[in-house]
Write a structure and sequence with these properties.
Distance between the termini: 47 Å
Bound molecules: 4'-deoxy-4'-aminopyridoxal-5'-phosphate
Structural class: alpha/beta
Length: about 450
């Protein structure tokens, strides 16, 4: 089984001791060979050191939440509805929250019925349930390249194969998607679904343009391929015009399963997300959820619902947007100021991530130990491809460190890249002016 430990050298367990041989090694199910720790997780231990500026993790910044208010909402919940909140609930989720979720989805143009919503433990569980319901070993899933690392790992855990489709600055390329479907058809493979993060993509930070959205839906409809739209970042837009979710314009919604989450717009630790699915798929998801967890936590669902109904959530959302916008701006400023020539990057209008490309065949994975020595962490691009691609790329997150740390982190990274490209000395003299200024 291929696993990566928290120790970047890969030789020691997470407690610094060599792990004992595993007596059950030969007994595990074949699917465990696809269960690998994400590159992001492997980095956490190093990136968490206080001297390291971590541009690696994608953790939302909950410090912008009014904790007294959240605590009062929860205390009130236990006092008034404790008997329901602390009891088992249903596998589909609390009805009043499913109503609130439908209200939230109208913000992205979706008209849905609460009955078609399944509440999940974060959208990650929704992803797992969809995979469980659709994927047999050897099945094919089509995804953008690059794509969300834990989606790759989830599909691998169900022993599925991933076929990638390239993106450009406007998101996935519809003609390329059609070409991949045609190639798979010629090979006798019918993709089970097209997994896409169309808005403020993780990791690339790009958004599928409004003009392309109907084409993508059309290509999938013609090929008879279900769309799995994963949209945890859609409400975190920092500039530009809002786009409608793919699900909003799908014909009767029959060919899209939509995933949403409160992790980035409220609190990730509550683990509340959802799937909106066509009725037949919804029934399967509820059955799959029942066998996985019996019931979602009524406590966390009711806490989210009460918060949405009693607190000024739109203002909270705006506060999150302002905080992340400032961080995004700091990162884009710093990249312009500190990156040597030849490095390129995306300009996200929302979400958490910038995707940077190194020049001259530089390998971001090979460079990582030198970046860590320079006290800055990022995620090498290879983790976001199922086919070994992504060597010259890195994902830079701006969600967690404050703006001044982002500036410092990108400055350190710029120095590392400059040294790798042999530009270190030449740039040293020129960099002074840019370094003293700030956004
Ligand atoms: N999808 C994407 C694209 C993500 O970036 C994440 C979180 N990093 C998730 C799903 C899962 O989020 P959660 O389970 O917290 O809703």
């Amino acid at each position: 089984m291929h696993t990566q430990s928290d120790d970047p050298s890969g030789s020691l367990g997470s407690h610094g001791r060599r792990p004992a041989p595993d007596p059950w090694r030969d007994r595990y199910a074949a699917r465990t060979s696809g269960m690998i720790a994400s590159e992001v997780r492997a980095l956490f231990a190093v990136a968490a050191r206080p001297e390291v500026v971590s541009l690696a993790g994608g953790m939302p910044n909950v410090s912008a939440l009014p904790l007294e208010t959240v605590s009062a909402v929860m205390a009130d919940l236990v006092l008034r509805q404790g008997a329901v909140a602390l009891q088992y609930g249903s596998a589909q989720g609390v009805a009043s929250l499913r109503e609130s979720i439908c209200d939230v989805m109208t913000l992205e143009g979706i008209a849905a019925r609460p009955d078609d919503v399944v509440v999940t433990s974060g959208s990650q569980q929704a992803l797992d349930l969809v995979a469980r319901v659709f994927l047999d070993p050897g099945d094919t899933v089509v995804t953008e390249a690059p794509t969300y690392v834990t989606a790759i790992n989830t599909f691998a855990a169900y022993q599925a194969r991933v076929a990638h489709v390239p993106m450009d600055g406007d998101g996935v390329v519809p003609e390329a998607l059609a070409a991949v479907f045609a190639r798979l058809r010629a090979e006798g493979r019918t993709p089970k679904f097209f997994y896409t993060v169309p808005t403020f993509q993780n990791p690339a930070g790009v958004t599928l343009s409004a003009a392309r959205r109907p084409h993508v839906l059309d290509v999938c409809r013609r090929a008879g391929v279900l769309v799995l739209e994963d949209n945890p970042y859609g409400l975190l837009r920092y500039d530009g015009e809002p786009v409608r979710a793919l699900r909003a314009d799908a014909a009767r919604g029959h060919d899209v399963v939509y995933l949403g989450s409160f992790s980035k717009t409220f609190a990730a630790g509550l683990r509340v997300g959802w799937a909106l699915a066509p009725a037949a798929v919804r029934d399967k998801l509820v059955l799959a959820a029942e066998s996985a967890i019996l019931s979602q936590s009524p406590f966390t669902q009711l806490a989210v619902d009460r918060y949405l109904r009693t607190q000024p959530w739109p203002q909270q959302l705006e506060a999150f947007r302002e905080m992340y916008r400032e961080r995004r701006d700091a990162m884009l400023y710093a990249l312009t100021a500190y990156m040597p020539p030849g490095v390129t990057w995306t300009t996200p209008a929302g979400g958490f991530f910038v995707w940077a490309t190194l020049p001259g065949g530089l390998d971001a994975k090979a460079m990582l130990p030198r970046a860590l020595a320079a006290r800055v962490a990022y995620v090498p691009g290879t983790g976001f491809f199922a086919d070994g691609g992504g060597r010259s790329h890195m994902r830079l997150s701006f969600c967690y460190p404050p703006p001044e740390r982002i500036l410092e982190g990108v400055r350190r990274l710029g120095d590392v890249v400059a040294e790798e490209t042999g530009l270190g000395d030449a740039l040293g003299a020129a960099a002074g002016a840019g370094r003293s200024a700030g956004p």
